[in-house]
Amino acid sequence: MDFEYQGKVIRIVQSDITTVKVDAIVNAANEGLRGGGGVDGAIHRAGGPAIMEECRKIGRCVTGNAVLTSGGSLPAKYVIHAVGPVWQGGKSAEADFLRRAYDNSLNLAAKQELKSIAFPSISTGVYGFPIEEACPIAINTVLNHLDKKTSLKEVQFVLFTRNDYDLYVEETGTILRTRG
Known about the structure:
The protein is built from five helices and seven strands, in the order βββααββαβαβα. It has helices at about 40-45, 50-60, 95-110, 130-145, 160-180; strands at about 1-5, 10-15, 25-30, 65-70, 80-85, 115-120, 155-160.
């Protein structure tokens, strides 16, 4: 489902993020940039050893931050590794850390003058962040970024399950209506 905002496209798709053809895909990474399960493992497997090699050189990335590597064998030119928070009941600034992970990813994309980026739903898998709370944070952070001058023309949210896709479509429509 495509939405238009400020002359840019927000695309919600149900797919495998490793197959998306954009300038950069975002990896829901861990602080050690070691690869792992879920989106992180899938990106490292599909992208090949070049991504892990670059991650080892970078070393670490703290929660809320993001770092850039090449896309290795992926269709995307770059991977932005964003470290979202582990859910601890919502009392440990998890929402702020999640917002920063999205914002820092968008800022890296803008610094590289990228035109398109694709996000998974950061922290809602093994990190346990409730997707109903994470989804509006992700969408609003992207919209706030698009309100500024940016090179980005397209932002995708690539969701693996139909339920996640449906939630992002509904929430994006609702948020856009309230923004006028």
